[in-house]
Amino acid sequence: MIAPKGSQLSPRLVGLLNTFEETLAGRLRKLNPKDKDDVLSLSWMKLAMESLCGTHNDIKSLIAEIDLPVSNWDEKWIDVYLDISVKLLDVCIAFSSEISRLNQGHLYLQCVLHNLDSTTSDQFIRARSSLDGWRHHIGSKNPRVENCSTILDKLVESLDLPKVKNSAKGKLLMRAMYGVKVLTISVCSVFAAAFSGSAKKLLDLNVADTYLWAQAFNDLQGNVNGEIRNVLSSGRVMVLKELEAVDDTVKEMDPKIQDGVDLSERNAFKNSISDLDRKAQKLSQGLDLLTKEVDGFFQILLAGRDTLLSKLRSGGAVSDRMLTGNVEGQFVR
């Protein structure tokens, strides 16, 4: 199907391609949530980022296995790769900034919990102030995340495969890269929707059934995007599950913090404080784990760019324009 005229893929190359696509299908099936409540949880988002890292490492291994020297890469392949990678680096920076912003909200919650150790009126006033600060902080928008839609739309345009002439290995590489791009764009659009609280950030990609991973992807996309749209259409303000759990407890405690706690309510209020502490810790820990995965993906992208640029410089495979203009101009951002 992908071999150029007058040539055929060897059984070895067919085997490598099939292994890559079957592995991708397995990752997609594993990512498909068994329970709709898993969607938009930090644990699911961590798993999604792990799948991205694994798939990008798989394509790196495939390139090494097919032994397609950089000198044989068409300039437009390299242009496309470098353009995609710098856009993904921008997306990673946006996600990292949002995770950091959400984690900063933990400081407000710690102040709330500290001030609720006492039931004096002064401490309650401070607790109310910290809660107001938390609501304002969590409810604010991150312009970097808001701008992700524009970047993702550009990445969708890159899904059209560059034409490959007289190279079976080249066509194999382009086919495999298509799967990597589809998974990457899909996961990033889910993250953008989750962090922004907007279903407009979601992308629905159409994948032909000629790919071994197509059915697994279509199932995943339908389940995840469908649940996110249901959640957002219900009017929920807090989209991330762990963040919503904290907000629910805050809303439950708020009237008592505002009006004071009667003697008969003190035990129940202490339980609410403990509940808030537990949920706040779970949120903070989940954000920390997700940060590590996003940072890991960022490093994989950087390493891929560094490797390619090093080979281009040492092999003289492409024009000076690509090395000094397109490449380095994009890299220093």
From TrEMBL:
N-terminal signal peptide: none
Domain of life, per lineage: Eukaryota
UniProt topology in membrane: Single-pass membrane protein
Pfam families reported in the protein's UniProt record: ROH1-like (PF05633)
Location(s), subcellular: Membrane
GO CC field: membrane
Major subcellular site: membrane
Tagged with keyword Chloroplast: no
UniProt keyword terms in alphabetical order: Membrane, Transmembrane, Transmembrane helix
Family: Belongs to the ROH1 family.
Protein name per Swiss-Prot or TrEMBL: Protein BPS1, chloroplastic
Originating organism: Malus domestica (Apple)
